[in-house]
Amino acid sequence: MNPTIMRLTARALLGRRRVLLLLPMPIVLIGLTLLGVASEDEYVTAGDWGPLVFGNLGLAVILPLTALIVGSSALGLEIDDGTITHLLTKPLPRGEIILSKLTVAWLVTTAATAVPLAVAALIAGSGALAVGMVVGAAVGSLAYSALFLALSVMSKRPVAVGLVYIVLWENLLVSFVDGARVFSIRQHAGALADAIGDTPLVDSSLTVLTAVLMAAAFATLGTYAATRRLRSFALTGEAN
Amino acid sequence: MSEPGVIHDIGYQRYAGPRLGPGYSARSLYVHSLRGAYGLGRSPWAKVLPIGLLGLASIAALILVIVNSQLPAPVIDYVGIASTFTFAATVFVAVVAPELVSVDLRTKLLQLYLSRPLSRSAYALTKVAALATATFLLFAIPMLVMFIGMAFGTDTGIGGVFDELGGLLLGLLAAVVHAALLAALGLPIASLSGRRVFATGMIIGVFLLTAPISAILRELDPGALGALAGLLDPTSLLNGVDTWLFGSDIALGAIDGYGPVYGAVTLALIALGTACAVWRYRGIDS
């Protein structure tokens, strides 16, 4: 890993106004958790609103969306701007470039998702769930970041492809075809959070072993594919 | 020595022919944007996603025709297509809207457009119209596929075909409402950023983030607040309009007697979104 690349990537991701884009999501999450806790009574239980807030909002929207924006812009911005040329002319192993980019993307995504999710879990009154959310979000962030980083090297339109994966695969297909959840990172994160948290606030039907193995497979394959693709990366004229 | 600042006439030719004017520019931009939305006239990679989504929607419509023809009553009618495909249409808008406006901002192509007779507000309105038309096609083509399938499969002769035609027209009307709202929301958001990454992220953020909010509010309060919660989320809002205007039975949540409110909010959002797009381009440097 290369500290210079990491520092420059972190600055490109966080240095400008665009970091504010990540702010509304935690606010909505924590606001809805407060609302859910406040309106709990004999009709509305934690099992009613919990899965909606932590599952459908936290792990299904906030985690993948943050990872998509961060993961695909870690290297994607350099390709867009053409500064990738400078990076590629340096005598650095391609794996080192990818690993540095991936580490920064992973740390930023984890910080932007695990912290609000843990705070929301604490508000909901479950310390175990807070730990589960941090672990689930960290593992999910790693797998998502590797996937979207690989997409940004392989495709000219990584965000569009990533979006199709998130919306059509993880949200639409998984609700119809049950087996597809094995290949859905959101389900891996949910399984880990459920196993550690053990509350009615989240529900998951995947075993922990499957989740860990599949998330590791996503992360490894993503990193490997990105490295391989970057080795034979061709600078083309069409910028848009 | 000649005086400074004098341009000598060395035989410049004047153009005396007809000038095509702003209307022509707007029409050309509209056609160009509509083609660009589906990647026509661009690289094959630009076609994959929009055409792929359209193809998926058409295949889904074909499957529905087969399912409908096997069952006594159709499971999903034409308005149902508009309702259920809204989710895919939001992805389409999030992918296509940045293609239409962000690239112009980033490559400074916008300044070239504005140096023509085309006015700023005409540019914005044309782009909204092109996006709305492209989204409309995403609904309309699967409906046509369904109509052709159902018209051939009808067993009540020409009367059955006319029944299907009536349903198709109703469905197309619903598609117009859906396309107008999605375009009026997506385009101004896309025009905020010259980077497709962030433009797409912001649009899908608005669509994806609002859906669980209204679902949670609906869960927490079964009363009036729950019935009005659908207003917060474009997908539920359009679903409510379908339920109210076209009697669609695929409801995401109860709208009780608030149908007119859903209709009014939809109209207001379309107007507001379009106005925002025009306003966004008013102050832009040229």
UniProtKB/TrEMBL annotation, chain A:
GO molecular function: ABC-type transporter activity
Transmembrane region(s): 20-37, 57-77, 98-123, 129-151, 158-177, 206-226
Keyword Transmembrane: yes
Keyword tags: Membrane, Transmembrane, Transmembrane helix
CC terms in the record's Gene Ontology section: plasma membrane
Top-rank taxon, per record: Bacteria
Pfam families: ABC2_membrane_4 (PF12730)
PANTHER family referenced in this protein's UniProt entry, alphabetically: INTEGRAL MEMBRANE PROTEIN-RELATED, MEMBRANE PROTEIN
Name of protein: ABC-2 type transport system permease protein
UniProtKB/TrEMBL annotation, chain B:
Name of this protein: Membrane protein
Residues spanning the membrane: 48-67, 79-101, 122-148, 168-190, 197-217, 261-281
Keywords linked to the UniProt accession: Membrane, Transmembrane, Transmembrane helix
Domain of life: Bacteria
